[in-house]
Amino acid sequence: TEELFQKYKTLKSFAEANLEDLEEAIFPTGFFRNKSRLIKGFASKLITDYSSRLPSTISQLTSLPGIGRKTANVILNEVFEKAEGIVVDTHVKRLAAKLGLTTETLPENIEFDLMGKIEKIYWRRFSLYLIFLGRKHCKAYRTDCERCPLSDICPSSLERR
Q1: Distance from C-alpha of 137 to C-alpha of 130, rounded to nearest angstrom
Q2: Model confidence, pTM
Q3: CATH class for domain 2-78?
Q4: Residue 111 near residue 68 (C-beta atoms within 8 A)
Q5: Minimal CA–CA distance to 15: which of 1, 36, 29?
Q6: Mean pLDDT, rounded, for 120-142
């Protein structure tokens, strides 16, 4: 990424980039053709529709190419310090199900399910806590229920006892 930002230093340079050159620059990341189109589209739309300023609502962010609810929620949480939803990544998806918080399988449905169960004041940090738990204690293929701070309330942990 350092080389990418050396070559393309401004939003305008991304928007005006030759598609083949951009593809070559991001080739190592995988899915380079799709990503390069999305990057150009994102930069162009940000310039034309938002005067080169990052929008601050989930509806505006998700109108940008390549930005779904997860990314939009991360931006809102980290850049604007506000929550309009809950970030659902692989850890949140897995742990929300293990904890019995949802039976949904699609990230957007999981998000809306969790939004109905978690008070809004906790939305910003909720995902971070589950991500931490997923990385530290409740890995997809190996759980560490004995050290998990939620072992006394987790249905999955209680079944193992």
Answers
A1: 10
A2: 0.86
A3: mainly alpha
A4: no
A5: 36
A6: 92
